[in-house]
Amino acid sequence: MQKAFSYRFYPTTEQESLLRRTLGCVRLVYNRALAARTEAWYERKERLDYVQTSALLTQWKKQDDLQFLNEVSSVPLQQALRHLQSAFTNFFAGRAKYPNFKKKRNGGSAEFTKSAFRWKDGKVFLAKCNEPLNIRWSRRLPDGVEPSTVTIRLNPAGQWYISLRFDDPRDLTLQPVDPSVGLDVGMSSLITLSTGEKIANPKHFNRYYKRLRKAQRSLSRKQKGSRNWDKARLKVAKIHQKISDSRKDHLHQLTTRLIRENQTIVIESLAVKNMVKNRQLARSISDAGWGELVRQLEYKAQWYGRTLVKIDRWFPSSKRCGQCGHIVERLPLSVREWDCPKCGAHHDRDINAAGNILAVGHTVTVCGAGVRPDRHTSKGQLRRSRKSQK
Questions:
Q1: What residue segments make up the domains of the chain, in order of their start?
Q2: Which residue of 56, 140, 161, 236 has the lowest C-beta tally within 10 Å?
Q3: pTM of the model
């Protein structure tokens, strides 16, 4: 199974100088190739591919003003052209938008294949570097495994990371367990389990909001492009990185626990990109990290032999009574508890939804049945009950 482990590393002064030049050259080649392909299409209705942009790279290296391209490894430059080709392939297939130009302030990345790095005694030697990278090994690679690809990344906060891609021969399948669980994501509670447990939303952004606002206000007062502006920008980027790291760490702990304790996990397939278009809820939805939650559950279920079932996003999990199956016509977000008008059962909105998600997940797993039942009529919109108003 193909895996990639990411580590923080601390380059020497010479290594950092070479890596920054490499990232700059990768960014320049990518942007020039993107401009050439765009110009060829709009002016001559001609589509350039990887082979033609690779020939352009050979010509660029011969120009007097681009001689610095020969000072770095040629492999990351070729890989940048391959990534651009993949971006256009995804665009023409309708899976992504038109490729954008790379910006220096976003840091950047460079990919090294086996011909551009050396793996010796558990150390990584990059091309044109005599010393190994000082990597902080948070976890070791499996015994006898060598990375096939190395990716160097500089984030906007000025931190260096290395990603080692390798083929893992180990069988990490966990022992089968009986429990299955349905998950209903939310904002007040990050997730609600069908067992009735609610996992609180840490709201990482709110924890750093005051510091971030102060740093952004200071950045707005600086002259753009100045040294002080760059220092202030770095402070803002570091706060954003803290928020991102805190969110990922919490999600990793949560998803690992769910994978270990349950054989089958059922969750809704949410369109997060569409949901964040709501300006009132966009920040809270982004801070919750629902997309990252599902992504981690997907690959961890594959690693450890668990089953992840994603049901249709249009299934009325919250509106459906878990006792009799009656579906109410409308259920505003302000209604957190409600009584079924047909059987009189009292429901907690999130726990009822998680239970319905689990039930439908079992149905989909066993017989592949649809999850959009016929619409039921109701007497009207449910309003906030007295109990929920207290």
A1: 2-167, 180-311
A2: 140
A3: 0.85
